[in-house]
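Sample pair:
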Amino acid sequence: MKLLVIAAYLSSSLAAPLSSYLLSHDPSTASPAESIALSELTEYFKQITDQEPVVLPPAAAAGKLQIAVGYSAAIFQSEIGPDTFTDFGLDGFVAQTTKDGSIVLSGSNDEASKGTLYSTLHFLNEIGVEWYASDEVSTPPPETAIPGFNVAIPKLPLEYVFERSELCIANVVTRERIQLILLGLICTLCIHSRLVPLPSTLARRCIANERTPVLAH
């Protein structure tokens, strides 16, 4: 399946800082990747805004400005439904801003899907979070307005990017594993859509199966 990337930005009138959002998530149906995604988003929410995010189940979050994390929270949005994820692979994801300004970060409802995690990492990178090393991360100012998203990638091509990344990071700590997953995603997007700059030295070394967990620019 060909890579489908659609990117669009809403008018600035809908833009709001991260602190304006609550998080919508259903832990009772969350897959392991969705749980990790929520944990990552929560951590960076706190780093950026210096406050703890409000996390509500989808029903309680209805009608509120929110970031819906995971499939169950996603399909609670009127503009998202099961058909949105038709033919999605385990690595496919959406990052979409709804008409009311809420944001959906999700993959398919397959228990093995990593889509929600990829979507969340994509979101964090787009709002200005940058990973330089496992202990060196840059975050955007708290007043930064969140852009609109309309990204749909049913299936990431070049699966070997991730297969080789897993070989590269087999013995690396969790934070660096997440960093390398993101870099594999960036590498794939770069090769196929040229939406982002060329991947870092770390991504190139990782693709070559070298164990180099320190990001070099």
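The chain has two domains: 12-153, 160-207.
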